[in-house]
Automatic annotation (TrEMBL):
Annotated protein name in UniProt: D-inositol 3-phosphate glycosyltransferase
Domain annotation Glycosyl transferase family: ranges: 198-353
Protein species of origin: Orlajensenia leifsoniae
Record keywords: Glycosyltransferase, Transferase
Glycosyltransferase subfamily 4-like N-terminal domain residues: 10-191
């Protein structure tokens, strides 16, 4: 498996790669991961995730300082490193999680050796523009180049996947590829503990990277528009380059006493945050799936999310929450108010629908589908969009 971002990075692509690697290892596969070193130390060693051991091939990397955590491997050495590691392992299949550097090198070298290649896309070039220092006048040109590069790498793969139908359509439209599979990142719902107790407060939760495309500023502005009698609190879990800016904005808006910035937390603290929340808010306009939203649903939270990219695959308006007009704090505030003022019966129904809607995203189904692709078997994409949600008994 090749990844340009992997643990200890905190983002959806890195988390998926970690869960996939550990899940496959738990099924008895010998899993190797090639990824940037998280520090100056590089080499090959054993790493453990979710109780499973994998072999990590950590390549020499440098920090990309316009970004708050991103590290990258040397592009001019990726072919040499990929050839060396592939020849050493002699893998049955190569699965790259990003085409940018690592996936490019691995796909070139695996193709030369006749090894089956699977490619998964979690990336939108538009999300990285603010960290590239590219002048605005050149950005459209740069995006075009990025998608052409993606087309070359994914074109070497026997099968190409991405987490949702909408993300698959987006990738096909951007690259000209066809037959992209929509395979959910998957989630182990048993790890989360829904609370069915009556609410004693109105607590809104956001979990994710604290970056521009997440549009957390829209959520902060929406907080100022909520009815005062709700006495709503906002909890923001995650870190990123906009952390201090958003703290400053909350003070400017006069809501700093009602907003808690938690930063990075442990898995146990994250589960506790889901359990004590009343509603989950996801204002992002660039989600190819949103693992955080899936975790919230597994925790039986109603969700209010932007009607953008893949979020409508998870949030069914009026069923397990509401969709709001992207970038519109007034509409976000209105939809949050709807959830927080819902009758106990309606509120409990939304919670139950979230739990039901997450069932098709079971991680074991995801693992089985990828195993079939690794064997070269035809697959039917797992159902990731239920149009008629049903409430569990």
């Amino acid at each position: 498996m090749g990844a340009d971002t992997f643990s200890p990075d905190v983002n959806g692509a890195a988390k998926f790669a970690e869960r996939l690697a550990s899940g496959l290892a738990a099924r008895g596969h010998d899993v190797h991961v090639m990824a940037p070193a998280a520090s100056s130390k590089h080499g090959t060693w054993t790493e453990e995730y979710e109780g499973q051991k994998i072999t990590a091939h950590r390549l020499f990397s440098l920090r990309w300082y316009p970004h708050d955590w991103l590290r990258f491997v040397m592009p001019w050495r990726i072919n040499q490193n990929s050839a060396r590691i592939i020849d050493e392992i002699k893998p049955d299949v190569v699965h790259f999680q990003s085409h940018i550097i690592v996936g490019r090198g691995m796909s070139i070298q695996a193709e030369k050796r006749g090894i089956r290649i699977i490619g998964t896309n979690h990336f939108m070039p538009e999300n990285m523009l603010e960290f590239t220092l590219i002048p605005k006048a050149w950005q459209e040109w740069a995006i075009g180049l990025a998608w052409k590069a993606a087309r070359r790498s994914f074109g070497r793969a026997e099968s190409v996947t991405t987490p949702t139908k909408r993300a698959a359509e987006f990738l096909e439209r951007s690259t000209g590829l066809r037959g992209v599979h929509a395979i959910s990142c998957g989630i182990d719902a048993d790890r989360y503990s829904p609370s069915w107790e009556p609410r004693t407060e109105n607590r809104i939760l956001f979990v994710g990277r604290v970056t521009g495309e997440k549009q957390i500023d829209v959520l902060l502005k929406a907080m100022t528009l909520l009815p005062a009698e709700l006495d709503a609190k906002l909890e923001i879990v995650g870190g990123g380059d906009q952390f201090k800016n958003l703290q400053h904005l909350s003070r400017e808006l006069g809501i700093a006493d009602r907003v808690a910035f938690r930063g990075y937390v442990t898995d146990e603290q994250l589960r506790e945050a889901y359990s004590r929340a009343s509603v989950f808010a996801m204002p992002s306009i660039a989600e190819l799936q949103s693992i955080a939203t899936m975790e919230a649903m597994a925790s039986a939270l109603p969700v209010v999310a932007a009607n953008a990219m893949a979020l409508p695959h998870l949030v069914h308006d009026g069923v397990n929450g509401h969709l709001f007009e992207p970038s519109n704090p007034d509409d976000l505030a209105a939809k949050l108010t709807e959830v927080l003022t819902a009758s106990p019966e309606v509120y409990q129904a939304m919670k139950k629908e979230s739990v039901q809607l997450i069932v098709p995203h079971d991680i074991q189904r995801t693992l089985s589908t990828f195993e079939s692709l690794y064997r070269g078997e035809p697959v039917t994409d797992p159902v990731t969009d239920i149009t008629n949600a049903t409430t569990p008994e």
